[in-house]
Structures are given as structure tokens and as C-alpha cells.
Amino acid sequence: MPSYRQKKYVTTQIKASGIPCFYYVGKHNSDDYPIDVVLKFLELENGYYTFTLGNVKIIVLDANYIKTSDGSESYYKRNYNKTTNNYPYIPQEEIEWLKKELEDDELNVMFLAWI
């Protein structure tokens, strides 16, 4: 498995190339690292966000959560293999954000999510 340093080298080279590259979180990104470390590594504020390319609004969703009795918890250290709760799951806060993003119907919409 590549080290953190090797992975960072690859992402740095992609960024330096000038080729547009957009990341989103998949469940295996947090097998070894908590979500805050993954987001920092990918230089993301959240696991969900939007961007526009031409006339397409791309909505990136983060479904890397497990629904719990008191809300949700993010995937970490393969806890998705150790639960009887529902997953993948999109937390309510993200659903509310998504509703607002869909109010603008000027553009075509494409969704990205790792589930």
C-alpha cells in the first residue's frame, strides 16, 4: 500500500500539471485515517461540494456515513463492516445543503458519490 507521502506526491503532481482534477471521498479513503485527515489531504472543506463545467453543475455527495440511533458517524477503520446500522447514509445536514443546490435549475446536473 502506498504511503501517505507517496500519495501526496501523486496529488501534487496532478495539481501541478494544470489538468482539472476533482476529488471525492470513498469509504476506503478512511480505512486508515479519520475523515478530517482525509479532507485535509484532499484539500477539501467538506466531503460534499459543487463545481460547474460548461453548462453542467456537478454535485459531489459524501455518503460515507453510517446511520446511528442518535444521528450518524463517518466511516473509519472499516467500521462499516462492523455495524448492523444502515449505510451508506447521507446525513440530514448534507440533504438540506443538497436541496438548496437543486433550487437552481438553470444548469444540467450530474451527481458523483462513492457508495
Taking strands numbered 1, 2, ... along the chain, how are they ordered across the largest sheet?
A: 1-2-5
Order of helices and strands: HHEEEEHE
Contiguous helical run count: 3
Give the number of domains.
1
Structural class by sheet pairing and helices: alpha+beta
Runs in which pLDDT lies below 50 for 5 or more consecutive residues are none
State the total count of DSSP E strands. 5
Strand content: 15-25%
Largest sheet features: 3 strands, mixed
The whole-number mean of residue pLDDT values reads: 84
Indicate the topology:
Blueprint: H1 4-17, H2 35-42, E1 49-53, E2 56-60, E3 65-68, E4 71-74, H3 92-101, E5 108-112
Parallel strand pairs: 2-5
Antiparallel strand pairs: 1-2, 3-4
Protein described:
The chain has one domain. It has 115 residues and is of the alpha+beta class. The radius of gyration is 15 Å and the shape is flat. It has helices at 4-17, 35-42, 92-101; strands spanning 49-53, 56-60, 65-68, 71-74, 108-112. It contains 3 helices and 5 strands, in the order H-H-E-E-E-E-H-E.
Properties at a glance:
115 residues; three-stranded mixed β-sheet; 3 helices; flat
Quick structural summary:
The chain contains three helices and five strands. It has helices at 4-17, 35-42, 92-101; strands at 49-53, 56-60, 65-68, 71-74, 108-112.
